[in-house]
Amino acid sequence: DGGAVKPRGFKAGGMIRGPGTGTSDSIQTEKRPGTFIMPADSTQAIGPEALEELGEVDDSAVEEQGEKVPVRLSNGEFELPPEQVQALGEAVLYAIDVVFAGLVLSGGVY
Questions:
Q1: Cβ partners under 8 Å of residue 49, min gap 6
Q2: How confident is the model over 34-89, as pLDDT tens digits?
Q3: Element holding 52 (H helix, E strand)
Q4: For the CA atoms of 33, 21, 42, 64, what is the dihedral angle to 10 degrees?
Q5: Strands (DSSP E) along the chain, which ranges?
Q6: Dihedral (CA of 43, 62, 55, 96) sign
């Protein structure tokens, strides 16, 4: 099943491992809505270690229950669970806000 079931105590998300290639969609599983799957070529270019650090959340904040949807994944892709996607989005929005506030305070043109 390509790792659809994660034992308790393990971090949700991470590298997708299973049969096939980086574009074969050979791994049938289910994921929660809001999960982001980084393509294998992008995962390789960015590096899985860097992706693991993006939008880090406390493992206790990750909720493994709820509705899931069927998906087909490829070996080498990278899963970011909804909580990590949200944390990353909040961090990006905060950074944009800081930059925007800096432009306004400095009288810059935007």
A1: none
A2: 999 999 999 999 999 988 888 776 666 556 667 999 999 999 999 999 998 888 88
A3: helix 48-53
A4: 30
A5: 14-15, 27-31, 36-38, 69-73, 78-80
A6: positive
pTM value?
0.71
Q: What's at 87, amino acid-wise?
A: A
First CA to last CA distance, the chain: 49
Length of the chain: 110
CB 101 within 8 A of CB 64: no
The pair of structure tokens assigned to 99 is 């930059």
Contact, 80 vs 35, CB < 8 A? yes
